[in-house]
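Cross-posted from the bioinformatics board.
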Amino acid sequence: MLQYVTAGESHGKGIVVVIRGFPSNMEVDLDFINEELARRQRGFGSGPRMDMEKDRVEVLSGIRFCKTIGSPIAILVENKDYQNWLDIMTPEGSPPPDYNPVTIPRPGHADLAGLIKYRFKDIRNVIERASARETVGRVVAGAFAKIFLRYFGVSVGGFVESIGGVRAEGDLTFSEKVARASNSLLRTFDKKQEEKMISLIEKAKEEGDTLGGTFVVGASGLIPGLGSYTEAELRLDSQIAGALMSIPGIKGVEIGEGFLSAQKRGSEVHDAIFYDSLQEGFPFVRRSCYSGGLEGGVTWGDFLWVRCAMKPIPTLRKGLPSVDLSTLEEVPARFERSDVCAVPRALVVAESVLAFVLAQSYYRKFGGDAIEETLEAYQNYQQYISKFAGRQKGRG
Amino acid sequence: MLQYVTAGESHGKGIVVVIRGFPSNMEVDLDFINEELARRQRGFGSGPRMDMEKDRVEVLSGIRFCKTIGSPIAILVENKDYQNWLDIMTPEGSPPPDYNPVTIPRPGHADLAGLIKYRFKDIRNVIERASARETVGRVVAGAFAKIFLRYFGVSVGGFVESIGGVRAEGDLTFSEKVARASNSLLRTFDKKQEEKMISLIEKAKEEGDTLGGTFVVGASGLIPGLGSYTEAELRLDSQIAGALMSIPGIKGVEIGEGFLSAQKRGSEVHDAIFYDSLQEGFPFVRRSCYSGGLEGGVTWGDFLWVRCAMKPIPTLRKGLPSVDLSTLEEVPARFERSDVCAVPRALVVAESVLAFVLAQSYYRKFGGDAIEETLEAYQNYQQYISKFAGRQKGRG
Amino acid sequence: MLQYVTAGESHGKGIVVVIRGFPSNMEVDLDFINEELARRQRGFGSGPRMDMEKDRVEVLSGIRFCKTIGSPIAILVENKDYQNWLDIMTPEGSPPPDYNPVTIPRPGHADLAGLIKYRFKDIRNVIERASARETVGRVVAGAFAKIFLRYFGVSVGGFVESIGGVRAEGDLTFSEKVARASNSLLRTFDKKQEEKMISLIEKAKEEGDTLGGTFVVGASGLIPGLGSYTEAELRLDSQIAGALMSIPGIKGVEIGEGFLSAQKRGSEVHDAIFYDSLQEGFPFVRRSCYSGGLEGGVTWGDFLWVRCAMKPIPTLRKGLPSVDLSTLEEVPARFERSDVCAVPRALVVAESVLAFVLAQSYYRKFGGDAIEETLEAYQNYQQYISKFAGRQKGRG
Amino acid sequence: MLQYVTAGESHGKGIVVVIRGFPSNMEVDLDFINEELARRQRGFGSGPRMDMEKDRVEVLSGIRFCKTIGSPIAILVENKDYQNWLDIMTPEGSPPPDYNPVTIPRPGHADLAGLIKYRFKDIRNVIERASARETVGRVVAGAFAKIFLRYFGVSVGGFVESIGGVRAEGDLTFSEKVARASNSLLRTFDKKQEEKMISLIEKAKEEGDTLGGTFVVGASGLIPGLGSYTEAELRLDSQIAGALMSIPGIKGVEIGEGFLSAQKRGSEVHDAIFYDSLQEGFPFVRRSCYSGGLEGGVTWGDFLWVRCAMKPIPTLRKGLPSVDLSTLEEVPARFERSDVCAVPRALVVAESVLAFVLAQSYYRKFGGDAIEETLEAYQNYQQYISKFAGRQKGRG
């Protein structure tokens, strides 16, 4: 089974990813993966840390001469400032004599609950892992997934839709929005609204505040029949929602126009099925996509899209009301270097997470130990699909 | 590990649930489980099928003299109308000579993609499993979870918040809303708006249309520290979102005020931490709950809540545009007996699904082969929590 | 993923099996499955229970008109004597007033440790699940696996090799041994030694004692490349050993001549590779099979074999020394109806267990939602294999 | 859940281990882990590679100031000779112009099947992962497990019992044998037979041959009730057999006297239960241990033991008959630097693997996020056990 695990603290040695299950002989373009890491780092409103790091993958295993060899792929992305944190983050020894543990939990973070759960005395132990730095690992895994998906003609993308309540507007297709967003500072498609978003971010920054927003991620070139309705855990909508909700800061996920469709009638929001005899391959087409391309937890093929809500970053320069656990006095939460608005960067993480779920669903369907084998199975399916309509006719 | 699997077709022999991992010696009240099944069946706007079935659990294994014995629990809930469907749903033999396979897929259902994926000739094979009937199994598993959670003082509940865009209003606490909803036809807390919802449903019914809506589910009495920030798949928000999104018809999930908080500033939506020395047990309190009670994927204790969006039922009396696969002609989708609005009933399923995820998180934390052992570990933790504030003080 | 779970107590309602992951459109011959259950029941030295039961599968889900439909398959095999045990095994109510809990643990069973682990007062709760009756579920799952494997030309079989130290002898091939064993009372291939085994069993029976033995299970028609060396848990030898060792009574597993090869030199026990240009398909042949057909955890193709050691049944008519927990006095262990020698019957269970592991390894390699799709992938691989030698030549 | 994954090639950058699920606040002694790695490296008959490497763990994550922090633990053990292999093992670029892929598969290795499975042209891709070097990762994980088990008073050890058919003899207890073995060149307990084993190894070496052997691993200080009879995959015997059989070269596993007991009568091999009122804690004692301490897949407490058979190393200086795939000519298999007899070193790996399975079984039973919490649950159980006999009495 295709899966990955990440490890690593925010100011430790680095972030480790181990990916298991990719077939052998897959061509791996490390430049692409590094570029994905760079995309994750860029983003208007990024904090100063972004300047100092240039994340790069170091391959520890699983790749030889730019190809996967079927063995687990281990990647290390070093934390460039580890040396500065060594005395505080060392696995060995004991804390320096002048070290002050973190004792003021930040609302909106796992700080307080984490301290209790793991019986720590120092919130630093929580902060270091409950950190957006961990998403480096997900972007690496997602970059591999994107490479894998390309073999099947699938591309994954997205765009920011709103920040702090300011919404991008425009009657464009999904791919037009993605294209415009890719050249945009805030990864959004509406130049005019983007300016308002920027002002809002700058104002929030001045005032020591933070902002959230919404974004859309999707994929095109999909086959019908990914995921399954037969078991709850095989439903692709469930897997996607679970994966996206695990990204730090994400508090809402809807498949297509989820919350809107809850206000409508069935006749308004279900995507009618049409037959287009001129359509090559798969002639059953839709002229709307309220469903996000998923019905009963299964892709209808071609396209899927999902919207996420990200809360404002909970580390504020003007600290939120909190309590110092060492005195039990009410004090403002401490500030630890942080962005003002992480929505454009979270979009890159969400793309990665979506890409990995889709890669899993392709792999689950087609199997194969070598990419050639997986592709043969995929081509069989494509052929079957292209003959499907003809075969069904006259059967009933 | 605590887990369950369901099996069974909508008009087959019945729905089977196998639940693994509950500790032994847990007292099982079968009447309560049957009452949960009854709650699932009730609901204004339910279709005629509801009248004819009285779902009841038949214990096949794992319980002796009203107690769990540590072995897998298998439950069968028979489909009361199986005999009427026997010639069409039999595992043996072949279809009756006059049998017409289903060849018109319904938009919004897995019908078309399912047919393709599994290479069927008869959409009946899809319909039978991609059916809300399967949620019987989830309610059974959820009822066991509720029984388990009671040992820890946790209760799970919810209410309908809107139907077809008509929203219940009222400045009430969560538990007040749950209490009022439990006596309401539509499981909502606002009598006045409920009447409007009912009119809406009746109108939709007349017109052969369907309606969706939103509901909230939550739990109280929780300990802090359920879930974990250390790995994506251990985050409770991820598990909850994945589980709720797997319920048929659910298209959106937000943890607390997820989508609203994406429009706000950090200073407005993060729930400040206060210290209340008079509070027994755990003195770190919140005066708001935008976060839904989950920070960094971990419970802060006491309370959590989540909102779901349900699309209108995709089986409409006035069939949506579709295609007859046997002729490739565009025809209205066929109607198969169905409700107009399943939101109040889906709420019961969502409670069940949430309860099971929470039960898993308790069990993961406390382990134990017998319920007495699990409870001892829980009591240790309660004691630790109650001394936590005192111990922290003076440490920093 | 292909997997199954069993539930059910020895004298409860029955044994339930839920199998998940088989592709759709697989033809299911229920008579074959019932015949496998009958094979499990037969066996010289079987206890009286065997006469009264005729195990038969009842399909609860997942099969329609003799074909799988991709949904979970649930099967119930009723316990024919449940009615006689109803007052003692009922999920409801309380024990009858005259009921005496079982308080004397049997050495060699889970009785004592189970009672402690699950904090029971009645060993009956252990006995009922820690019973060979559970293997009914494994035989059902294994029968499905055998049906699946037939699509790939794989057959699974085995034979008893020794009972109570009496060994069958004969210079025969594996398939000859399997063929002879299938017509033999004790499922062994050596008529003469079988007579001695029978005498031994009869003598043991007279004396209230029990006997164990060894058997071999294997499969032919396999492709090379099942399992993998890349991860411990993907190794087929590991999966096979884990699965076989989970059968009640099995205390030893060796892959091929495992324990013998530990006494030999490398030059004596590694199976040399030869090239046979006349061999169709896969021309790299072996002339010995010490390795059992598994190297580095991977099949070399064609054939694999494994040997198991089964201990004597631990329920003896002449009770072993034990302690009555209600008095703490040393007493003989109680006797609960039991066989004298279960080796021939365990062989059937082991075949089933092996078949399921092999089915998993085929499914992991070829994927597919419908059996047609799985077969297409298999045929691709067969074609690749047949050209493999030619393609390799001249490459180095 | 407690689990680990390894990655890394034999001549790549190093071996990576990611361990998930250990509770926080566990004290980690890195010197102990390095010493375990050193034990794995030492061993009479080790090849020359052993001299040049000094394996040492580099902590990448999960440990701070010598304590676990609940986050995944990532460890890198560098391969000291990576620089010499860089042009051949680099993840980037292409093979050097003069590079000759490996084209002669070694019998007894995954070489041929691996090449086919993953559609390689170069057996090097197989050799690198299907290598005993991977066991470095298992020893690291096992060292953590041993550290964890110490909290519960459990120690794991073992000894070599035979090499090339020469058996150590001596009427000693398990712990005496372990003690003697720890000071012995071949990790065996019988000085006299060890000399014979050494001669045998030297002779094999001279003749370009290899040797296998058997060893015993076990644990003492165990609680009763680890593992479970309720499900096949929860049985501890199954887990242990699966884990041990996944060690390269292991071809046989028996729980206690598995194969011997298959030749005996029930009355001879089942370990009678006695009551010893003077025994503190758990008064139900055994005076034999044929069962290996596992009945019905569950520990009886105190002690368990298992025997493994290791085949001779399949890389022989005098190459076994094989085929050059680039010419299809029959040639001797190539030699790649290798030991003559790896049995004493495999023993260390087996201890590690056993330790990890036992750690999992403790963690499954007691849960806990911090080691303090796990220990509290353990102490509850110990207390329950110590009162068990008294409570049972008079109950029946």
